[in-house]
Every structure is written in structure tokens, then in C-alpha cells.
């Protein structure tokens, strides 16, 4: 499917290049046509003036010999103009066919894109258990999101994000950046199932809490640096979400059930709401990254995971 999309995009680029060349050729021929028409008008005016000066006096016989030259020259000019007009019409027809071909390719690429996204979305839903596997076995496709305050910030954040994905053992299957100038990008990644990623990212948060430096992958540190430079932003890889809101940088690991309910497209424009939701996660699943690593949470007094914890805001500023 990817190869088909690439081939279709290359075909569109070639068609647009051909159309641009045809446009330049038509423009050049029309300019020549206008110049020749101007010269013809001047010559006809000059010939008409000479004929007027040479008009016979009343009773004189008109000598038609000299008129043969201008008549033949005018005929040649008209013939050339007719040929140029034919060429112009042929170029216009070619331009119309190329335009129609480009439009058809645009529609084909749009259909392929919708089909690809629908399949990837289905695979991601199947990995989270939202749809049946139909005997296809475990799926390892997960959703991802990158959102920044503007397109240039999003592009810089995407570079760090893709490096982090590689550090995590994931490969990018598809990236959709939306219309030109979009501040968001949607990703589909594969390589690890959501449950495996959940374990890895819980371990990542633990290392961030306990290690002063070097405990987390360099790609993850790059994402944090980029987010710290922004007033607001959001990144997601499967169950892992990092939200930047004014004065706050939070990371959290969602359960699979929470992943199913997490609508990154709807929340990408409201990182403050994402941060609020992350603060409601149990302490073992949330880390306040605003002031750097924080200590590991105290073990629960009773067996079993802690179902809830006080918001991170109630803890003293990420220290101790």
C-alpha cells in the first residue's frame, strides 16, 4: 500500500511538472503570436497608406502589378497565424488532459490514504481489544500523536519524538500531518504490543524518578527538552502520554482501558485538560517532570496496586 501511495505521488509530481512546462510553452507561443499580430497590423497599415498615396487620379487606369507583393506577404502572415492558433488549441487540449489526469491521481491518492488510515486504525483498535481479532493473532500497532503550538514547533518536536520511538523499539508505519501548516501529526507505530509498551513505560517513569541523569533514553530526554521550550504541547506513544501546559510538564502511562477512551485528536488542542487527567492517575503511573526527576512513590500499605493517589500538585514540587 505504501509503495502504491509513493508511486501515485510521483505520478502526480510528474504530471504537475509536465503541466507547468506546457503552461510555459503555451505562454511563450501566445507571446510570439501577439508580437506577430502586432507586426502584421503595422505592415497592413503601412501597405494601406502606400496604396492610399498611390491611388489613381480620376480617369487613370489602376496598375495592379505592385499590389501582388503585399497581398502575397499578407497571405503568408495569415497562414503563420493560423498555424500558431492551431498549436495554441492543441496545447490547451493537452493542458486540459493533464489537469484531468492530475485531478484523477489526487482522488486516487485520497482514496488510498483513507483506506490505509482505516486499516491502521482498525489494527490499533484490535491491539487494544476494541474489535475482535478474527483469528489474526496479537496485533502490535499503536497510535501516536504529536501536537505543538505551531507547525515549526511541531516539526522540531516530531524529530525528537521519532527518535524516542526508535529508542523504544518501534518503527513508524504511517505519519499523517494533515493539511499544510498543521500543528498536529498522527502516527501509527508497530514493534511492540500495548501491554509490553505499558510495562516499558512504567519502567521508564520509575527510572526518571530514581535516576538523577542518564536513566531515560536520549530520545525521551530530547522530547522533554522540546516540550520545555513550548508554552503547550502533547505527545503520545500508545499508553504513554506527555503533556505540556503553562508551568507544568507531566508524563503518565494509561491502562489499556484508558487508552481506548483517550481521544488524542480531540484533546491535542487542550494540553491543560490532558495534564488534569494525568494528575488523576495513580502515583505509580504519573510523574511530574516539571522540575526534573522526583522520588519513587511510597509502597502502598496494603497488597495490590494503589487505585488512586493525591494529585501531583499536592506533593511538594517534585522534591524528596
What is this entry, summarized?
By secondary structure, the chain is of the alpha+beta class.
Structure write-up:
The protein is α+β, with helices and mostly antiparallel strands and 320 residues long. Helices cover 55% and strands 12% of the residues. The chain has helices at 2-53, 68-127, 151-167, 194-210, 218-228, 256-261, 264-267, 271-279, and strands at residues 142-147, 171-176, 184-190, 233-237, 240-245, 248-253, 286-288. The chain has a seven-stranded antiparallel β-sheet with strand order 2-3-1-4-5-6-7, with helices on both faces. Helix 3 (151-167) runs antiparallel to helix 5. The longest helix is centred in the first third of the chain and has 60 residues, at 68-127. It starts with a helix and ends in a 32-residue tail after the last strand. Mean pLDDT is 75; it is low at 293-297 and 302-320.
The gross shape turns out to be elongated
Helix content: 55-70%
- What structural category do the secondary elements indicate? alpha+beta
Strand order of the largest sheet: 2-3-1-4-5-6-7
Please provide the count of β strands.
7
Percentage of residues in strands = 5-15%
In whole angstroms, the N-to-C terminal distance is 52 Å
SS element count, helices: 8
User: Biggest sheet: strands, sense, closure?
Assistant: 7 strands, antiparallel
The unreliable regions are: 293-297, 302-320
Amino acid at each position: 500500500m505504501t509503495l502504491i501511495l509513493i508511486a501515485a505521488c510521483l505520478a502526480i509530481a510528474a504530471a504537475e511538472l509536465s503541466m507547468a512546462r506546457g503552461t510555459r510553452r503555451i505562454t511563450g507561443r501566445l507571446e510570439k503570436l501577439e508580437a506577430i499580430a502586432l507586426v502584421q497590423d503595422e505592415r497592413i497599415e503601412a501597405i494601406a497608406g502606400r496604396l492610399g498615396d498611390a491611388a489613381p487620379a480620376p480617369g487613370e487606369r489602376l496598375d495592379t502589378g505592385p499590389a501582388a507583393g503585399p497581398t502575397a506577404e499578407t497571405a503568408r502572415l495569415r497562414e503563420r497565424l493560423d498555424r500558431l492558433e492551431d498549436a495554441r488549441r492543441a496545447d490547451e487540449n493537452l493542458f486540459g488532459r493533464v489537469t484531468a489526469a492530475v485531478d484523477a491521481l489526487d482522488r486516487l491518492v485520497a482514496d488510498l490514504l483513507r483506506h490505509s488510515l482505516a486499516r491502521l486504525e482498525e489494527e490499533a483498535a484490535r491491539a487494544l481489544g476494541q474489535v475482535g481479532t478474527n483469528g489474526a493473532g496479537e496485533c502490535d500497532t499503536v497510535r501516536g500523536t504529536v501536537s505543538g503550538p505551531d507547525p515549526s514547533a511541531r516539526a522540531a518536536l516530531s524529530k525528537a519524538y521519532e527518535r524516542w520511538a526508535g529508542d523504544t523499539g518501534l518503527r513508524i508505519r504511517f505519519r499523517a500531518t494533515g493539511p499544510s501548516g498543521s500543528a498536529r501529526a498522527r502516527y501509527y507505530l508497530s514493534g511492540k504490543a500495548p501491554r509490553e509498551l505499558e510495562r516499558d513505560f512504567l519502567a521508564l517513569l520509575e527510572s526518571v524518578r530514581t535516576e538523577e541523569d542518564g536513566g531515560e533514553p536520549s530520545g525521551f530526554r530530547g522530547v522533554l527538552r522540546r516540550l520545555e521550550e513550548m508554552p503547550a504541547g502533547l505527545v503520545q506513544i500508545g499508553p504513554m502520554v506527555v503533556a505540556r501546559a503553562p508551568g507544568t510538564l507531566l508524563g503518565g502511562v494509561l491502562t489499556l482501558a484508558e487508552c481506548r477512551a483517550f481521544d488524542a485528536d480531540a484533546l491535542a488542542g487542550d494540553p491543560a485538560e490532558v495534564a488534569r487527567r494525568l494528575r488523576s492517575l495513580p502515583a505509580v503511573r504519573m510523574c511530574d517532570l516539571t522540575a526534573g526527576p522526583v522520588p519513587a512513590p511510597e509502597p502502598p500499605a496494603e497488597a495490590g496496586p494503589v487505585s488512586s493517589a493525591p494529585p501531583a500538585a499536592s506533593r511538594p514540587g517534585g522534591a524528596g
